[in-house]
Amino acid sequence: MTNTVEPLRRVFFDSWGPYVLLAVSVVTAAGAARALGMTRDEMYAAGALAVTAVPLQMRLGRARQNTPGPNRWSAALYFTRWALGFVLAWLNPFFAFYAAAGYYSADRHLPRRLVMPGLCLTAITMAGSQIGGLPPQGLLAWTGFVVVFGANLGLVSVFTRFGRQEQALTQAQAGIIAELERTNTALQQALDENAALHAQLLVQAREAGVADERRRLAAEIHDTIAQGLTGIIAQLQVVANAPDLDTARTHLERASGLARHSLGEARRSVHNLTPVALAVDGLPEALKKTVTEWGERTGARADFTVTGTIEQLHDEVAATLLRICQEALSNAARHARPARVGVTLSFMGDEVTLDIRDDGTGFDPAAVPRRTVPHSRLRSSGGTPTGGFGLDGMRARAERIAGSLTVESEPGCGTAVSARVPLVRDDH
Questions:
Q1: Chain segment 322-377, per-residue pLDDT in tens
Q2: Is the predicted pLDDT of residue 245 greater than 60, yes or no?
Q3: What distance in Å separates the CA atoms of residue 284 and residue 307, rounded to the nearest whole number?
Q4: Are 397 and 322 contacting, i.e. CB atoms less than 8 angstroms apart?
Q5: Whole-number Å distance between alpha carbons of 22 and 100
Q6: Residues 405, 324: contact at Cβ < 8 Å?
Q7: How far apart, in Å, are the Cα atoms of 124 and each of 24, 99, 161, 210?
Q8: Of 13, 183, 320, 424, which residue is 20 to 30 A from 262 by alpha carbon distance?
Q9: Are 242 and 252 in contact (CB under 8 A)?
Q10: What is the mean pLDDT of residues 108-116?
Q11: In angstroms, rounded to a whole number, what is the distance separating the alpha carbons of residues 94 and 92?
């Protein structure tokens, strides 16, 4: 507010101040003319000069409007006005009111090298008026003139110095404000770019999630449904060539069992396509239900724990951690046969960790190669899984949202799976 009001006041005073000072000078000089002993000719001369001062001041104002900043023309008009004020103050010291305009307008109309000379000339006029008028009469009057002139000159120097310091400070502040505005603009642009990048990353994450789900479904279909259908076909072929009804009934029952199993696997795959649990509950509740249901289904003891201050996570982060937990529990049920499983969700400042530990058979992580054949084939042949979609899928899920996944296990000592991902809060 101050930075706006002060320039407006100064512009108003620049435009109308000299006219007001001239009017005050005319009124006071006219009132004191007889007391000061002015002759009629001096009064006429003072009146003519006062009238001349009006168009001179108008020219000075137009010169500043046409060419902002000091120039030769404005300097010539300034010194002309000083000469006019000096003569008026010589005729009547009360015209010093008008001559004082030279103090506050020197830096606007004069180049820097002429400011001090212009102020000194104005100080001469003011000192002459302050001692009672020019010229000084006698040694005492001259002594008083020198003292008063020195005092005026000292005040002029001090205030000029203060004014220049204030001007330098104002310019520095203006520079700082301009720099802050540029910085704020750049910061806002960076924030806008980050927001756009964040939105782009979310889109890419969703697209990657779709591709990941497609790969997961392909693996599920290949490992369960396709293998089940292959088994059903094989059993039906045996039925077609069965030598008796009992043999055919036995193979039909096997085919029916495989069909029911494949139907269950198909339903499970479709159910896992989207984390329905997260549509109703938050991640901690969804994980707790998942762990509880897994324990009831497998008969193993399953415990779930939450540590830290619970945060509402972004959908992608919550879905990723839930999928990792489901995969880890599924792997444990398939391969580890644990008696006890513990799942811990930890909120730690700017990241979230999910730990799944079991006391199952364990394995050597370094000895597990990339998946090359389906689990079901190995299981049907009595072999051991040689890797698969499980560990690779969990690791890919964590890395897709800038997280990581580590697996610690030893044969006979159980397995620990730990996922660490950034804590991204829900933006809704």
A1: 989 988 998 898 888 899 999 999 999 899 999 999 999 998 887 776 554 333 33
A2: yes
A3: 10
A4: no
A5: 10
A6: yes
A7: 20, 10, 19, 89
A8: 320
A9: no
A10: 86
A11: 5
CA dihedral 308→309→315→317, nearest 10 degrees, is -30
Average pLDDT over residues 276-281: 69
Distance CA 205, CA 185 (A): 30
Closest CA to 304 of 319, 291, 323: 291
Which token pair is 187? Answer: 């910061």
Q: Which residue has the tokens 């830290």?
A: 308
Which residue is listed with tokens 């020197």?
A: 106
Burial of 21 (0-12, 13-18, 19+ CB in 10 A): buried
Q: Is 416 exposed, middle or buried (0-12, 13-18, 19+ CB in 10 A)?
A: middle
pLDDT at 382: 34
d(CA 161, CA 167): 10
The pair of structure tokens assigned to 90 is: 């010589």
Rg (CA), the chain: 48
Check residue 347 and give left, alpha or beta (phi > 0: left; psi -120 to 50: alpha). Answer: beta
**Residue 42: CB partners within 8 Å, gap ≥ 6?**
91, 92
User: Given phi > 0 = left and psi -120 to 50 = alpha, else beta, which region is 299?
Assistant: left
Give percent above pLDDT 90 in the chain: 25
Helix, strand or coil for residue 358? strand
Q: Which of 12-16, 224-228, 375-379 has the highest mean pLDDT?
A: 12-16
User: What is the Cα–Cα distance from 417 to 341, expressed in whole angstroms?
Assistant: 11
**DSSP assignment string, 36-47:** HT--HHHHHHHH
pLDDT tens profile 19-67: 889 899 899 989 988 888 889 998 999 999 999 999 988 888 787 777 7
Q: Can you state the percent helix, strand and coil of the chain, rounding each to 5?
A: 75, 10, 20
In angstroms, the CA 266 to CA 11 distance is: 83
pLDDT band for position 383 (cuts 50, 70, 90): very low
Tell me the range of 137-151, 209-223, 385-399 where mean pLDDT is highest.
137-151
For β-strands 351-358 and 301-307, DSSP reports them as unpaired
Mean pLDDT value across the chain: 82
pLDDT of 4 over the 50 cut: no
Q: Which long-range contacts (CB under 8 A, 24 or more apart) does 78-82 make?
A: 78/102, 78/105, 78/106, 78/109, 78/110, 78/118, 79/118, 79/121, 80/56, 81/53, 81/56, 81/57, 82/118, 82/121, 82/122, 82/125
